UniProtKB/TrEMBL annotation:
This is Lamin tail domain-containing protein. Keywords: Signal. Residues 15-141 form the LTD domain. SUPFAM superfamilies: Lamin A/C globular tail domain. It comes from Nonomuraea typhae. Residues 1-25 form the signal peptide.
């Protein structure tokens, strides 16, 4: 009986921890893990240069996520809306700025101009159902790419 108050206090602490965690503590289902915002070489809007600018998204769950109508956007409002695309559990997809043929691990925005600002920007991914922001990644003025995870 002597340790009953200690046990009750421990249970109360566990209950507080299990219910009191903020919502952001859980990892997002779809994560932005890398943004390559400054493609190598001069910015001449060639297909290879545009496609060297990209964002990598990862499915951090154990289930396939249907990304159809999900939106990837930058801070100023450029938007890429996914077509029919299933991101399998634990897999990644690269969204390239330029043109190409979509596949199972790479999709193309189809733009003729760059999206991601070299001097700082924010990439964010939004669900189709309610346009709620799922994850975001920001960077400043240095480097060519950023690791977001």
């Amino acid at each position: 009986m002597r340790f009953l108050p200690l046990a009750a206090a421990s249970l109360a602490a566990v209950a507080t921890l299990s219910t009191g965690l903020p919502a952001y503590a859980a990892a997002p289902a779809v994560q932005i893990i890398k943004v390559y915002y400054d493609s190598p070489g001069p910015d001449r809007r060639s297909s290879s240069s545009l496609n060297a600018e990209y964002v990598v998204l990862k499915n951090a769950t154990r289930s396939t996520i249907q990304l159809e109508k999900w939106i990837l956007r930058d801070k100023t409002g450029y938007k890429y809306r996914f077509g029919a695309f299933a991101l399998r559990a634990g897999k990644s997809v690269t969204v390239r700025t330029g043109s190409g043929s979509d596949g199972t691990s790479t999709v193309y925005w189809g733009r003729g101009q760059y999206v991601w600002n070299n001097d700082g920007d924010t990439a964010s991914i939004h669900r189709a159902s309610d346009l709620k922001k799922v994850d975001a990644c920001s960077w400043g003025r240095s480097g060519d790419w950023t690791n977001c995870s």
